[in-house]
Amino acid sequence: MAKTSLTVKVHIEGVREVLRAFSVLPKDAQNAIRDHSQKLAQKLATKAVVDVSAHGGPQGPLLATTVKTVRDRVPAIQVGGTRRLGRHRAPAYGMLFGSIFGMNGRSGWFSAAKYKSAHGHQYRPHQGQDAYAFFPLVEREAATISREWHAAVDDVVRKFSAGD
Description:
Elements: E1 5-9, H1 15-22, H2 27-55, H3 60-64, E2 68-70, E3 76-80, E4 84-85, E5 90-91, H4 92-101, H5 135-162
Antiparallel strand pairs: 1-3, 2-3, 4-5
Helix pairs in contact: 2-5
């Protein structure tokens, strides 16, 4: 089955080594870092809602309602899903990539023959790998999130190392 949502994990330098080192700590340490990561992801998700609403095109405000955090050891947010949005009740995943990256063709009801001569486009023009929303925000915030995540990891390691 195809994926119906887009999950983005924030790029953090040295994350693999840190997570590998976490394997020797108790399960509670893993849960503590998941809690910290989810708090960081919640900050990012709040900004992502505003970003997708403002820069996601006409469908942006609808897609903004599908942004949520994912509980993981690294901060991650998700957008899309199977929820039906808009007056045509299209699934969120159906308009996700067109809103974020744009599209040069027509899709769904707008690809019908009677709309062939229409000048309007359902989505903004596709610009290759450049996104209109969501990804630029994640890239801008990556350094801050990385710094805060490393500080949270240091606190968790300090707490659980002292407890031994």
